[in-house]
Amino acid sequence: MISVLGLDLGRKRIGVAGCDRLGQLAMGLTTIQRRNFAKDVEELRQICQARQVERLVVGLPYTLNGELGSQARQVQHLAEKIGAALNLPVEYVDERLTSFQAEEILKQRGRSPRHHKELVDQIAAALILQQWLDARSQALKATSAAVDPPSKA
Predict the structure, then answer these.
(1) How many Cβ atoms are within 10 Å of 7's Cβ, its own excluded?
(2) pLDDT of residue 136
(3) Environment class of residue 128 by beta-carbon count within 10 Å: exposed (0-12), middle (13-18) or buried (19+)?
(4) pLDDT band, very low/low/confident/very high, at 152 (cuts 50, 70, 90)
(5) CA 100 – CA 8 distance, rounded (Å)
(6) Do the Cβ atoms of 102 and 124 come closer than 8 Å?
(7) Helix H or strand E segment including 80
(8) At a CB cut-off of 8 Å and minimum separation 6, what does 59 contact?
(9) What is the Cα–Cα distance from 54 to 47, expressed in whole angstroms?
């Protein structure tokens, strides 16, 4: 059982995603309209308490060539402040192209990304969290296989 929040931290909004208790499926929860740090953290605190969150997974916007640019450093700084305020560990996932993927998903659903920016942020947060959940699942399988190798009959 695990409870993790995925965050897509933007200048105007924070996309928030959660996962099922088994840690297999991510889903968009809400979008927080950013006002100021204290109010943003209070909204996140309420979500974290309601869902008994154990850690935050934040999308880090690497440049297309895989480097940490100024935007990624700003996101890291904000994420660390949020993690400290909520007393939760923060992990990062490469979020390159998640907003683009989120927009494509909305288009497939017949909705305009320009008119549903909050949904883009939620879907992007879910994609970020799903990527982390999938990597965690693969790591657990690999560890399990290394500890308990299949027997040869």
Answers:
(1) 27
(2) 87
(3) buried
(4) low
(5) 13
(6) yes
(7) helix 70-86
(8) 6, 7, 8, 9, 75, 92, 93, 94, 95, 98, 124, 125, 128
(9) 12
Query: What SS3 state is found at 31?
Result: strand
Tokens of 124: 């992007």
Statement: residue 153 has pLDDT above 60: no
Q: Are 22 and 135 in contact (CB under 8 A)?
A: no
106: which 2 tokens?
């909305």
Instruction: Dump pLDDT digits (tens) for 55-103.
Output: 999 999 888 888 888 889 999 999 999 999 999 999 999 887 777 788 7
Question: Which of the residue ranges 13-17, 90-94, 133-137, 143-147 would you say has the lowest mean pLDDT?
Answer: 143-147
Q: What are phi and psi of 41, to 5 degrees?
A: -65, -40
Whole-number CA gyration radius for the chain: 16
